[in-house]
From TrEMBL:
<protein>
    <submittedName>
        <fullName>MFS family permease</fullName>
    </submittedName>
</protein>
<dbReference type="InterPro" id="IPR011701">
    <property type="entry name" value="MFS"/>
</dbReference>
<feature type="transmembrane region" description="Helical">
    <location>
        <begin position="247"/>
        <end position="270"/>
    </location>
</feature>
<dbReference type="InterPro" id="IPR036259">
    <property type="entry name" value="MFS_trans_sf"/>
</dbReference>
<keyword id="KW-0472">Membrane</keyword>
<feature type="transmembrane region" description="Helical">
    <location>
        <begin position="301"/>
        <end position="321"/>
    </location>
</feature>
<feature type="transmembrane region" description="Helical">
    <location>
        <begin position="131"/>
        <end position="155"/>
    </location>
</feature>
<feature type="transmembrane region" description="Helical">
    <location>
        <begin position="161"/>
        <end position="181"/>
    </location>
</feature>
<dbReference type="GO" id="GO:0005886">
    <property type="term" value="C:plasma membrane"/>
</dbReference>
<feature type="transmembrane region" description="Helical">
    <location>
        <begin position="98"/>
        <end position="119"/>
    </location>
</feature>
<feature type="transmembrane region" description="Helical">
    <location>
        <begin position="39"/>
        <end position="61"/>
    </location>
</feature>
<dbReference type="GO" id="GO:0022857">
    <property type="term" value="F:transmembrane transporter activity"/>
</dbReference>
<feature type="transmembrane region" description="Helical">
    <location>
        <begin position="277"/>
        <end position="295"/>
    </location>
</feature>
<dbReference type="Pfam" id="PF07690">
    <property type="entry name" value="MFS_1"/>
</dbReference>
<feature type="transmembrane region" description="Helical">
    <location>
        <begin position="73"/>
        <end position="92"/>
    </location>
</feature>
<keyword id="KW-0813">Transport</keyword>
<keyword id="KW-1133">Transmembrane helix</keyword>
Length: 406
């Protein structure tokens, strides 16, 4: 068995690698589009089935590791993810892409909660575990986009090599994860049958509902924007901005998520009351810059906007996670965060699917501009709700001393 520090590194690497698969196909979408004459809507369908399969796994096998252990679920998920990569490498059309995406989505959904729990179990402290578990997804997505873009542009076998590399990495990680010591589950109920762990379980305790509902616009705005980058982002960069290098396309997509990682770190050092304003403000400014860049065809300006928007994405989402963590009863946090991720992934896929439909009628640039405008509107709603909540909390705090005096 591995030592605790080594286990923490392995769990973190597995967490990042799991999300690497999410963005790896994105730089290849223009290649598939030209090779098989695919429409923008077809590309967003390929993207959406991944999220659908991920949600099914998240709602069913997501909590299975609490019963049978982290190692078997994490290892099996990584092996299944390797199979998904092999299916990508042999795909010969839309049917092959859809099959690969479904397998990949289910594997990522099964691994997400398990690997996150493994990171927390092996972390040297709860704070370190929280920071790493919230940072590795953005890091993994950025690595996937840049790695895929680089291999497609400069290496042989552009449609296969990246998936072969990832398949080998996932098999190796599956073996390493098996060496991570499992936490003691002797206190868990053993009388309840395992199949009950597969029943979908989402919901919100009554005390958490007002906070959660107030955060929905912010959660939807951040995840809808990331969904646009991973579904139509490569087409926007390649078609609207005229970037022909697959490596540069992957790099532009990657900087958004790398900036999200930076936003997460910066947000942690800010006062609690400032985090939401910082994240939402950066999100609005960044999206507006990208919207201005598209009609001008300015790639540098688009990259600047992506960096600013990425910082806002990371900071705003971390602020939402912190608020929910504080509002949720400790015994029900798992269920609260499962519900949050269901909303997040719906926002991740449904608007992107609608954008794919809109592209067929209005073309890519107007659709991207309208998408950005709607995202800004959502962020502004989130900012207004946040201001109202802050004002209400301040007045509630001001009234409490007088209530005590009476």
């Amino acid at each position: 068995m591995l030592s605790r520090p080594t286990s923490f590194v392995v769990a973190g690497a597995a967490g990042a690698a799991t999300l690497t698969a999410a963005s790896a196909p994105s730089p290849l979408y223009p290649v598939y589009q030209r090779l098989w004459d695919l429409s923008a809507f077809t590309l967003t369908v390929v993207f959406a089935v991944y999220v659908a399969a991920l949600l099914v796994a998240l709602l069913t096998v997501g909590s299975l590791s609490d019963r049978v252990g982290r190692r078997p679920v994490a290892s099996a998920s990584l092996v299944l993810l390797a199979l998904g990569m092999v299916l990508f490498s042999v795909a010969g059309g839309v049917g092959g892409l859809l099959t690969a995406r479904v397998v990949q989505g289910f594997a990522v959904g099964a691994a997400t909660g398990t690997v996150t729990a493994m990171i927390m179990d092996s972390a040297p402290s709860p704070r370190t575990g929280s920071v790493v578990s919230s940072a590795v997804p953005a890091l993994g997505i950025a690595i996937g986009a840049v790695l895929a873009g680089g291999l497609v542009e400069f290496a042989p076998l552009p449609r296969q090599l990246v998936f072969w590399v990832l398949a080998v990495a996932y098999v190796a990680l599956a073996g390493l994860v098996w060496l991570v010591p499992d936490r003691d589950r002797s206190g868990a109920s053993s009388r309840e049958p395992v199949w009950r762990s597969l029943l979908p379980s989402v919901g919100l305790p009554s005390a958490t509902r007002p906070v959660f509902l107030a955060l929905v616009p912010s959660i939807c705005a951040t995840w809808a924007l990331s969904g646009l980058y991973l579904s139509l982002g490569s087409s926007i960069v390649g078609t609207v901005l005229g970037v022909r290098s697959h490596f540069l396309v992957g790099l532009v997509l990657g900087v958004f998520f790398l900036a999200g990682l930076g936003g997460t770190v910066v947000s942690a050092s800010l006062p609690v009351r400032v985090r939401g304003w910082f994240g939402h403000g950066a999100l609005v400014v960044g999206v507006l810059i990208t919207v201005v860049a598209l009609p001008r065809g300015s790639t540098p300006l688009y990259v600047v906007g992506s960096v600013v928007a990425g910082v806002g994405f990371g900071a705003a989402f971390r602020s939402a996670v912190n608020a929910l963590g504080e509002a949720a009863p400790s015994a029900e946090r798992g269920q609260v965060f499962a519900t949050m991720y269901v909303v997040s992934y719906v926002a991740f896929s449904v608007p992107a699917l609608a954008a794919g439909l809109a592209v067929a009628r209005f073309w890519l640039e107007p659709t991207a501009v309208a998408y950005g405008a709607l995202d800004v509107a959502l962020v502004l709603v989130a900012m207004i709700i946040g201001a109202v909540r802050t004002h209400r909390d301040d007045h509630g705090d001001a009234r409490r001393p007088s209530a005590v005096k009476r």
